[in-house]
Every structure is written in structure tokens, then in C-alpha cells.
Amino acid sequence: MARSKVAPVKYLSVPRMELQAALLGARLMRTIIECHTLPINERYIHTDSEVVLSWIRSPSREFKQFVACRIGKILSLTEPTMWRHVPTKQNPADCLTKWGKETQLETDSQWFKGPPFLYLPPSNWPIQKILSGKKTEQNIPTTSVLHSLSPVSDTFGVIRIDGRTANAEYAEYDARYPIILPKQHHITRLLIEDYHSSLGHGNRETVVNEVRQRFHVPSLRTLVDRAARDCQRCKIAK
After folding, report:
1. InterPro entries annotated for this entry (predicted)?
2. 45-47 and 159-161 as β-strands: parallel, antiparallel, unpaired?
3. What would the pLDDT profile of 7-61 be if each residue is shown by its tens digit?
4. Which of 29, 89, 94, 144 has the highest Cβ tally under 10 A?
5. Which residue range is the domain that position 225 belongs to?
6. What is the bridge-based pairing of β-strands 83-85 and 151-153?
7. Is 173 a domain residue?
């Protein structure tokens, strides 16, 4: 089973590969239940992907085709309440790829016995850290600029774009998943002013291209023009 489930040659973003793994987990759970002779009262599936959990638990089903197809299959095999979050450091599935060479694989290790919290009542299991909007089950309005950007939150809760740029295999992570910044926020203005200054008060397109290597800002060119107009050095130079 595991040998045939390696990352495909065609590039997929990390969240989409994690979604593929979640679908595989759902299918394995169904197979185990069908083959098991003892009754199973409680069923849980753990993942360390907060993006996948947000997709599974989302009351809205407005996903792109790739995500929508796999979420539909997952929900046909499981219930959203079966899915739980496991911190990466406590995820046995990652021990061969993320925990370094000192990982112990003895029979009393986490690889064989699972994370310690599984021996506790479910009320003591790890709780996923989620954004305030998700806590209140708020959907993104169709009129919002975020609606068409396929926003996802990374492991630090930073909102990023999971769009076509994710297919740029050799680009830096921030370029593939740029951070979304609100155009009217004070921090956004300071950031653009800093880029304008550090790039030698250059032309607009230079600043725009550099900002887009890490960030997505609506109406970016307008904000860059405004920063140039308000720049005292540029005013003196004119």
C-alpha cells in the first residue's frame, strides 16, 4: 500500500498532497471496518494538516474541482466529526521523514504504540488552533476579494493563496503561496514604503514585482503609486 503512494511526478501543492493522504486514510478506515470481526464503536482519523481539516469541516462546498472531488469522496466515507488534529511532533506518520536520524523505532516507541495522548480520554486530546472566523463558522462572502483567491491558513495561521502559483515547482515557498495582505492596513502601507525605499525609489513595476514575490495585495499598483507620491525624497528629486 505505502510503496505505491508516493508523491506524483506532476507537481501538487503541499495542501493538495495532504488532501490525497486524507482520502487514502478514509479509504483505509473503511477497509479495516469491513474486514474487522469485532464491533467498532468510535472511529477517528488524525491529520496534522490544518488546511485539510478546514476543508473537511467547512459548511461551504465552494471548492475548486480537484479539492471538491476529493472532499466529496472523504465525506462519503467519513463524518467531519471523525477528523481530529494531531501536532506534527506527535504524528507517527512523519517520524521517517521529519524527525531526523535519531528516531527510535523499537517496539515501545511512538512508531509502534502511537502518540501518548491516544491513551487518554478524547477530551484530553490536542485541539486544533483555528482562526476566529472559523470559530464562528463564517463563510467568505462572494463579494469579498478573498473569495476568488482560494485562501488557506498555514501552520502559523497566516492566510495565503493556494492558486496557480502553487504549480511553480522551482519557485520559493512564499512565491508559490503568497501571504494575503489587506490593502488598507497600516502594516501594508509601511511594507510598501519600505520596498519603495530599499529599491532605490525606483519605478513602479520594480516595486510591484518584488512585493509579489512574497505577498498578494489588492490594488497593489495604486498603493505603490501612492507611496511614491508621499515619499519626501521623491518629491525633492522632482
Report:
1. Integrase_H2C2 (IPR041588), Retrotrans_Pao (IPR008042), RNaseH-like_sf (IPR012337)
2. unpaired
3. 565 667 788 888 999 999 999 999 998 888 888 888 889 988 888 888 888 766 6
4. 29
5. 186-237
6. unpaired
7. no
C-alpha angle 90-93-94 in degrees, rounded to nearest 5: 70
* Cβ proximity of 47 and 90 under 8 Å: no
The rounded distance, in Å, linking the Cα atoms of 190 and 194 is: 6
DSSP lists the bridge partners of residue 152 as 160
Structural domains in the chain (count)? 2
Instruction: Round to whole Å and give the CA distance between 77 and 11.
Output: 27
Quote the pTM value.
Answer: 0.52
Cell of 68: 471538491
Mark which of 119, 152, 178 sits at the end of a domain.
119
Lookup result for grid cell 495585495: 217
